[in-house]
Design a protein that fits this description.
By secondary structure, the protein is an all-alpha fold. The chain has 3 helices and no strands. Helix 1 (about 1-15) packs across helix 2 (about 35-50).
């Protein structure tokens, strides 16, 4: 299941900022691959793609810092 989630997350990230190497980046914010508007866009796309509702307390930089953190967040909500 994680491979499928990872692939969808990477596709969403590519839609937000095409051509970036998200897979090999440890910190999207430090590398300026995504900004606050990108997080909001990604949040909406994740909720739609996985039919989940992410709670406000989980909308933190740590949960959106890299692919692994986003996959972990989605897995938390998928149960």
């Amino acid at each position: 299941m994680q491979t499928n989630i990872r692939q969808i997350v990477l596709e969403i990230l590519d839609e937000i900022n095409a051509g970036c190497d998200f897979e090999n980046c440890d910190d999207f914010f430090e590398e300026e691959l995504i900004d606050s508007m990108g997080v909001i866009t990604m949040l909406s796309m994740l909720e739609d793609a996985f039919s989940i509702s992410i709670l406000p307390e989980d909308i933190t930089a740590d949960n959106f810092i890299n692919v692994d953190s986003i996959v972990g967040l989605v897995e938390k909500y998928e149960g």
